[in-house]
Amino acid sequence: MSVLVEPVIQTVKLSKVYRSGFRMKRVRALVDLDLEIEKGETFGFLGPNGAGKTTLIKILMGLASPSSGQARIFGRPPRDARVKSRIGFLPESPYFYEYLTAMEFLRLSAQLSGVPGQEAEARVRRLLKLVRMEDAANVQMRGFSRGMLQRIGVAQALVNDPELVILDEPMGGLDPIGRKEFRDIIAKLRKQGKTVFFSTHILSDVEMICDRVGIVIAGRLVNTGRLTEILTEKAESIEVTVTGVTGKFRKVLERVAQQSIRSGDSLLLTVRGDDEVERVMAIVREAKAKVSAIVPRRKTLEDYFMARVREAGRN
Ligand SMILES: Nc1ncnc2c1ncn2[C@@H]1O[C@H](COP(=O)(O)OP(=O)(O)O)[C@@H](O)[C@H]1O
Ligand SMILES: [Mg+2]
Predict the structure, then answer these.
(1) Phi and psi dihedrals of 51, rounded to 5?
(2) What's this model's pTM, rounded to 2 decimal places?
(3) Would you place residue 282 in the very low, low, confident or very high pLDDT band (cuts 50, 70, 90)?
(4) CATH 3.40.50.300 domain position(s) in the chain
């Protein structure tokens, strides 16, 4: 056995060009994508709509072929039968046969992926518990909310006890509570040592649960890294809360700040740097008002992401 640990997912100069419409217009959905995902990583593939996320996932699942370059899963081509049994997959808009109960559907999925009968029964129960759907196990899925369907979708993706789980926009259409529950499920998978690859455009969710993210814009991977590395740039702005300012002093402060929000006799000012903070302090002293808080605003992934999207728009 080799001591070298093979990446779970690897793409080398992977490109995909679609030709669509009457004029066969070329759409470059992926451009020279180089990516490596290690065993046990939780990786968030982040990008706006149309960035190429589903295209990559389709190639990884062997549903689409690259135009050039290559993809490897566990060191093999995605269409290799030995790869399939080690992957679990949740597509972007899954459709479930809604007259089946959750239990029946998962049993069927287990049978289709060749899980032996007795083992299947135990596994289906464990999965229903994992996604917190035990109470709805015997309810027909046509009554399920979007969040419940997504949870059953994840259970389905895990039914063959895969080493790698690929989820396409698993949190799409979920409310904040549903997304929180989903993050918890992904955290559990991570604890079990599974490699998780999921796509999303919801930044905050990625920020909380991923070991690493890749940012894809217009088919190009513009950055990959640990979030702490991507977000090391120093504070972009400082928020100063001032209370007890009125009249002309308030107007002056509002002019100094990039942004100001008024609430009663409080002002929340967003300023650019230390010099502006000093100016605000001087004005506040003169007005005999009070500064109640100064908070550096860390650059969030959202700020970073929006800046990259703007850059790509300019190119
Ligand atoms: N089958 C297809 N035929 C033609 N164009 C496609 C096809 N699938 C996707 N595209 C185009 O490729 C680009 C990337 O799409 P997609 O991978 O679905 O992005 P995402 O999942 O990030 O929203 C988009 O411009 C989309 O319109
Ligand atoms: Mg998509």
Answers:
(1) -75, -20
(2) 0.79
(3) very high
(4) 9-230
The answer, yes or no, to whether residue 102 has pLDDT greater than 80, is yes
CATH 3.40.50.720 is the classification of domain 9-230: no
Kindly report the backbone phi and psi dihedral angles of residue 37, in degrees, each rounded to the nearest multiple of 5, phi listed first. Answer: -115, 125
Q: Which ligand is nearest the CA of 56, by number? A: 1
Residue with CA at minimum distance from ligand 1 atom 2: 18
Q: Which atom of ligand 1 is nearest to the CA of 51?
A: 22
| C-alpha 163 to ligand 2 mean position (Å) | 23
Nearest ligand 1 atom, CA 48: 22
Using the predicted structure, report yes or no on whether residue 225 has a pLDDT greater than 70: yes
pLDDT value for 315: 60
Protein residues with C-beta less than 5 angstroms from the ion ligand 2: 53-54
pLDDT average, residue stretch 97-120: 93
Tell me the average pLDDT across 279-287. Answer: 91
Among 88, 87, 91, smallest CA distance to 77 is for 87
Q: Are 200 and 46 in contact (CB under 8 A)?
A: yes
- Beta strands 290-297 and 259-263: pairing type? unpaired
**307: part of which helix (H) or strand (E)?**
helix 301-314
Q: What is the CATH number of domain 237-298?
A: 3.30.70.1150
- Does the C-beta of 116 come closer than 6 Å to ligand 1? no
Q: pLDDT tens digit string along 5-40?
A: 789 999 999 999 999 888 888 999 999 999 999 999
